Structure formats: structure tokens, C-alpha cells
Amino acid sequence: MNNNAIGVFDSGLGGLTCVRELNRLLPAEDIVYFGDTARIPYGTRSRKTVMSYAAQDAAFIKRHNVKIIIAACGTVSSVAAEDESFAGDTLFTGVVLPAARAACAATKNGKIGVIGTSATVRTGAYEKAVRSICPGFEVIGVACPLFVPLVENGFAVPGDPVTALVADRYLAPLKSAGVDVLILGCTHYPLMEDAIRSCVGGDVALISSGAEAAKYACTLLTSLKMLNGSEGGGTNTYYTSDSARMFAESASLYLGGEVNGKVIKVSLEELTRFQA
Amino acid sequence: MNNNAIGVFDSGLGGLTCVRELNRLLPAEDIVYFGDTARIPYGTRSRKTVMSYAAQDAAFIKRHNVKIIIAACGTVSSVAAEDESFAGDTLFTGVVLPAARAACAATKNGKIGVIGTSATVRTGAYEKAVRSICPGFEVIGVACPLFVPLVENGFAVPGDPVTALVADRYLAPLKSAGVDVLILGCTHYPLMEDAIRSCVGGDVALISSGAEAAKYACTLLTSLKMLNGSEGGGTNTYYTSDSARMFAESASLYLGGEVNGKVIKVSLEELTRFQA
Q: In this complex, do B39 and A44 lie within 8 Å of one another by their Cβ atoms?
């Protein structure tokens, strides 16, 4: 039994798709979340900058005595896939391996599609993860850099023609390749599910990388007997590097309901002091 | 005569549309440019965060003994319109007033459109600037938050149907209002000129805020007898907070030619030490 919180961080709000699943699976757990909204997006930045931001984010989360850190960010998870030193000796997971395992279990024809930010796709991290599990599987990765701006600027409304057109263009190579599983390799993408589903059709299984990371954390904490033993529900606490009001206004979209916890602003000056 | 450099900063690469015009008008001047590519975009962030980034950017530029600072960023110029304290006693201009003056001179029917980031339009800075010059003019401001991501992700190609669709949607209220001048209130937007032009038609005058700021700086330095007296051409030096390679790869698109100077990375740690 371990009553410390579960720590989750992301470049912004996308990681809340992981928190939503954690709340569903593990309602007794306390969650500490950090979303780096003053420096989002990470997916268009260099490897060095992403690593530096991720190290600061993880160090900030660690100060809250968490029992596990989840990098609920496709970009951080991909770029840091072979270098998770910033988590130190705290239990850690990104979203890449959990999503790759789920995709390998779901595919029937061995053809798996992956969509993510430019930085994510450039690393080939999802492909490597899938091949480490099932070496014979084919993996097709496509960068969809406009998906996050579409979500953040109100274009991810079912039936929006702009979003449909962008989705059609990005996803065409995956349709031609005949993938039967598609990994949403960025935690923002579940909000684009309607457009993605309309484009790829009903027979392709969509894997939410944030939700899979939550399921994996649940399995890990259960098997290590590290679940929270308290009676009653856990509390969520959200930290953000830009305006708390702006975070709270948008968060319900990702959480699928009211923002269920305090939202606290942490300044970048404070954040950079937490370097691992 | 003053042989110090002209300092220019922006959230990223958009300010290079101002540098391009400075190079054309004042080929003898040295230019020091800073693009905050590790923290771009500014236009979706809170006022407080934008002011804090702008203060650091300006303080960094000031260390290079510049004779004038140009905030070649629509967001910074709008948000800081009534608080330019971060420039200290150095000569300073943003893009708002120069663009507003040009728009007032160009309009025949007194109906001026302004497009910019969400932060820019929220401030109403362009409207206030126009009305301070010509109180009777009508100003219609529209936020176009997807334009910068479209430019940065390769969608600003003449004839691209996604870009045309987005431009049509954003610009529809300006067409209905019958504006005869449109201020491109974000220094990225000249790269969207084809799509904007196709949408609004040939009779609407487009005002590039970056180019207008360059023209204003030229007028100011000339009238104050602060132009560079050296023989021969000036040098451009570009500083960027993310990868120098990535900056150099994209910069030619904004400069309309080869990157004509050294590109040097400055770390965020170094940048935040330069707080005004």
C-alpha cells in the first residue's frame, strides 16, 4: 500500500486524457498534474529543448512525493524513449510502450499506423517499440502537426470541413497501407477522434496513448501492491505554467466533465529551479 | 550618425518580414535579431506570460548596444501597447502604430480590417491606434489563430484548399463589412498573402505590420540623424532560443532569400538571466 500521489505531466492539456482514464480506473488515487502551457507545443521543437523541458517538468512533479511519474506526452515519451534519466529512481512510464503493446494485441493483419507530432514521428520511437514486441509487424508513422492547433483553436468539432480535409490528407497513406490499428501517438488526439474515425472507417481500432499509459500504470501499481489504501475518493491537483483560468476553461474538454480539482499556476522561474 | 545595430525581436520567425524590409531600406545597418523559437507561439498565452517573455527578449537585445528596439511581433506590440517600460530609455517601436498609420493613409472608405492572434485581437490595440489617428474610422478585428500553424506546417502554399477554407472562414466578416484596407497584424501573415488576397480580392490594400515597422524605424533614425555612417553593407546576426539549424532551415522563407548572417543559439537559462 502506498498513499502517495500519481504524478502526470504533459506539454499542455493533452495529458488530461490520461488523467481521465486514471480517475475511472483508480478513483481512490490522488493525482498531481503539471501542464506546461507557457511553453506548449513541444512537438515542433528540437530534441535538446524537449529534453530540457521534460527534465524540469519531471523534477517539479517529483517534489510532490509521487509514487510514479507518467509522461503523458507523446513527444516527451518518444524523444526520451532511450533516456529516462530525469525520472531518477521514481517509477516511470511514458505513453509509447503501453500504446505499442495495446496495438500489438489489437492488430489482426500486423499493419499498425502511428500518428503523432513531427518530433514524435522523427524519432521512430513507436515503430521501435512495436518491433521490440512483434518484430514482424509493419509500422507506418505519419506526422500530423496541424492536429494540435486544430484542437486548440476550436476546429475539432464533429463534421468540421477544415478538420476533415486535414485528416484526409494526413491519413491517406495509412488508409492506402491498409492498417487495422491506429495509435493516436499524441495525447491531444482523442479530441480529434470523430474526424479520424470518419476518415479511416469503423474497422480500424484506435488506440489512445494517454489511456493506455493510465491502464499500464494501474497494472504496475496493482502488481507492486502500491495502490492507495484510503477510504473514499482521491483528489486531483492541477499545476500549469500559464494562466490557471485559461487552463480551467479548456480542461473540461479533455476530462469529459467539470475540472475536478484545484488549478494552481506555477511560474517558469519556479519551474526552472526544479531542474533534476 | 550612430553605428550601433538595430535590434529586432519576435516570438519566432515572423519578425524576419521586418528584417527583410530593413535590409531593403537600410542596407548599411547592422541588424541583431532574436527569435524565441523555444517558446513560440506567444499569441495563445496570457497577458502576464507574454509581458514576461517580451521583457526577457528586449533585455537580451539591449545587451547588444542597439540604437533602437523593434518588437516585430503583433502579440507583443498589442499586449505591451500601453506598457513599453521593458525598453527602458532605448528608442523603441512595436508594429501597431506604424501599421495603423499606414492603414489610415490607405483607406478611402474609412473601414479598416485587422487580423491577428487571439491575444492581439483581444487587446483591441490596433483599433485604439487607428481611432487615436482617425476617430471616425470603423475598425473590425478578427482573430485568425490557425494562420501561424498553417504557415509553420507547410500549408501556406498558393492554392492549398485547407488554407483557402480557413482563410474564407476567418475573413468572411471582413468581406461582409466592406473593408478596403486589411492590416496583417501578425508578422507571420505576409506568408499567407496569396490565400488572403484570393479571399478578399484585388481591391483591398494589405498592410504588412512588420514592413511598416521597418519603414517607421527608417524614418525615425533618419530624422534623428542616427543612421549608420559606415561604407559598405551591414551584417545581420540572428539569435534563436531553439535549434540554430532549424531556424536557418525556415528563415529563407521569411527573408525571401538565403539567410544572410550567422545564426546563434542562446539557451533559455541565458535568456532568463537577461531580465530587464
A: no
